[in-house]
Design brief:
- It is built from 18 helices and 13 strands.
- With 493 residues, the chain is of the alpha/beta class.
- It folds into three domains: 258 residues, no CATH class; 96 residues, Elongation Factor Tu (Ef-tu), domain 3 (Beta Barrel), CATH 2.40.30.10; 113 residues, 3-Layer(aba) Sandwich (Rossmann fold), CATH 3.40.50.
């Protein structure tokens, strides 16, 4: 099960999460546990899918950009869960306004080729202001709260953004006494806590965490969550409007863009090189230069027909240095791999794709005297390549020991760079696991004599990162930074 979830793209997992909520609502309504008509929910869903899909295709052609296949369905399903759920012919106009406005917001309100606002929130607000239909946020009820919570836990496990959702929820609850809500009136409700937390949980786990509108670094996301909670409380306290959730999220989106104005980057493919067995480095020319910190990643988008369940987007670390003119993506290919990697391998010179970022906190500490230990598993070496090449190019001295594990000796990539890095204090130790076994506490103690003094960085496939993090913790090592590769994939069975 965990392996299956790891291999799903975040967008595909969000689709399944939303569909589980809709399915649960339909079943509970069919058995009259929820006070809704089950087919009304489905009618709204299918109509919104049709509107969002059609509008998205039209706007994409007008603005001459490629569409993201999954995002139009995600938006339609979010709108389904917050509008209605009572279907009627007069509701068709507000639903049309919501769907069209949601899709239009992705193409009209754009900064550096990336949309500013959450499409569903933009659509719901446009519907309220023009068609005078207010989003009910009916998904926020006691009976659906367990599904919201379980799905939210899975999403946060996948995305690793607990800090964002929990910062928002806790901040809002702390600030609740100063909001417009009459707390005394809640005493008359049977489940007052569920009344407050259910819609907010959906807001925090589904809408607030949209990667394209949230900041790319952890500290900034915490500020974003806190700021959005504060904005929501201010709106509820001083704005007498029934759409404060939508207003707060859209205002928070502006805050997020101010905190982290990460652009959409257009990259032109130049060439690919095999740097180790089944490992290829893809060289791209950015049409406009951008800044990144060694160790950060981009969210790459490669539209291709018949995409599998992992979708058309991946997170890959930039394996080049900021001093290099090219942006390099390095990845491993397996038999029966994903459609994304098949499309990547078939790129021709001059082909373009887009990426969003940079993002991530897997970067060097500011203190240059800090002793460091890097543990890389397989393709997890890529952030260390970027870091070490940057140190070489800028002639920075750092005390770093790299333990680089791969299945066989011919799978070690970038050995020339690591050999050259000896002159700046970087020592690489190669561990072919088919001969020496996996890295163990004994290995660390033998190869890193002063291991208790070092800050450890661990990067690679997620199961490996989790295993090494537990191992290091069992050794009493507390200073650990971890990274994992959603772009890494096992062969599809």
């Amino acid at each position: 099960m965990l392996s299956y979830l790891r291999n799903l793209s975040m967008y595909r997992l969000m689709l399944y999460y939303l569909r589980a909520l809709i399915a649960a609502a339909v079943v509970l309504s069919f058995f009259e546990i929820l006070p809704y008509t089950w087919w009304h929910i489905l009618a709204i869903l299918f109509y919104l899918i049709a509107v969002c899909f059609t509008a998205n295709q039209i706007f994409a052609r007008l603005f001459k950009v490629k569409t993201n296949y999954e995002s139009q369905f995600i938006t339609a399903e979010i709108l389904t869960l917050i509008i209605g759920p009572y279907f009627s012919i007069p509701l068709l106009l507000p639903l049309t306004v919501a769907g069209v406005a949601a899709m239009a917001s992705k193409y009209i309100f754009v900064y550096q080729k990336r949309h500013i606002f959450n499409p569903a929130a933009a659509g719901a607000l446009a519907m309220a202001l023009t068609a005078h239909e207010i989003a009910s946020w009916w998904v926020g009820n006691l009976y659906l709260l367990p599904v919201i919570a379980i799905g939210g836990i899975i999403m946060m496990w996948k995305l690793r953004w607990w800090h964002l959702s929990l910062t928002f929820l806790l901040s809002y609850l702390i600030l609740l006494p100063v909001s417009f809500i009459n707390l005394a009136s809640l005493e008359n409700l049977k489940y007052p806590f569920a009344t407050i937390i259910s819609p907010l949980a959906f807001f925090a786990f589904v809408m607030l965490v949209e990667p394209l509108t949230a900041p790319g670094r952890k500290k900034l996301r915490i500020i974003y969550g806190l700021g959005t909670a504060f904005i929501l409380v201010l709106y509820q306290r001083f704005v007498s409007a029934p759409y404060t959730l939508e207003l707060a999220l859209l205002s928070g989106n502006i805050l997020g863009r101010f905190l982290d104005p990460k652009p959409t980057i257009i990259l032109k493919f130049q060439k690919k090189l095999e740097v180790a067995k089944n490992i290829y480095a893809f060289y791209f020319e950015p049409l406009k230069q951008f800044r990144f910190i060694p160790g950060q990643f981009l969210e790459w988008q490669l539209q291709h027909p018949h995409a599998d369940s992992r979708g058309t987007r991946r997170w890959f670390t930039i394996s080049s240095s900021p001093t290099q003119p090219e942006i390099i993506l390095t990845t491993k290919f397996a038999e029966n791999g994903s459609t994304f990697k098949s499309a990547l391998k078939q790129l021709s010179q001059g082909d373009e794709l887009t990426a969003v970022g940079p993002a991530g906190d897997f970067v060097l500490p500011p203190d240059k005297s800090r002793k460091l230990a890097f543990i890389a598993g397989g393709i997890g070496v890529t952030p260390f390549v970027s870091i070490i090449n940057d140190l070489l190019d800028t002639n920075q001295l750092r005390d770093i020991i790299l333990l680089y594990a791969a299945k066989t000796a011919d799978e070690f990539a970038f050995q020339n760079a690591f050999s050259e890095a000896k002159k700046i204090g970087v020592n690489a130790v190669y561990i072919p696991t088919d001969e020496q076994g996996f890295i163990t506490p004994q290995t660390i103690k033998e190869k890193i004599l002063d291991w208790p003094e070092r800050l450890f960085y661990v990067s690679g496939p997620e199961p490996m990162v989790e295993a090494y993090e537990k191992m290091l913790s069992s050794m009493g090592i507390k200073n650990i930074k971890r990274d994992y590769f959603p772009g890494y994939e096992e062969p599809i069975k």
